[in-house]
Input
Amino acid sequence: MSRKAIAWGPVILWALGLFLLSEIQGTPDAFQPFLAISDKVVHFVLYLALGGLLARARWVGGTEGWHGAFLLVGLLYAAIDEWHQSFVPGRTPEPADWLADAAGVAVGYVFLTVARSRRAFGTPEAEER
Output
C-alpha cells in the first residue's frame, strides 16, 4: 500500500462517515442522549477527530506543506457538509454548527501537531513519561 493511501485513507474514511451521518433525515431517537449535552459538542468532537487525522496525514505522508492548507481542507469539508445538509429532509445547515466543526478541526490538528513535535524533539514534557 502506498504511503499516501496510508496517510489519507483514515481521513477519507472519517469524512465518509461524517457524510453518512449528515445523510440521516431528521434527528434519530438514538442520538437524543448525545444531543442533550449539546449538538455543538457533538459537532466539535466529530471534527476534532478529523483535525487529528489531517495532522496525522501530514506527518505520515511525509508532507512538509503549509499547516494552513491542511486546516483549510478540514474547514472546507465542514462547510460542504453543512451545505450538504440543506438537501436532506429534516436537516438544516447552521453557521453555529460550522463554527463548532471549525473549532474541532483546529483544536484536533493543533493538539496532535504539538504533541508530535514535543515527542519528536524530546522535550522535557515528553521525557517525563
Q: What stands out?
A: The first helix runs from residue 3 to 23. The chain has six helices and no strands. The helical segments are 3-23, 32-37, 39-60, 67-85, 95-120, 124-127. The two ends are 33 Å apart (CA to CA).
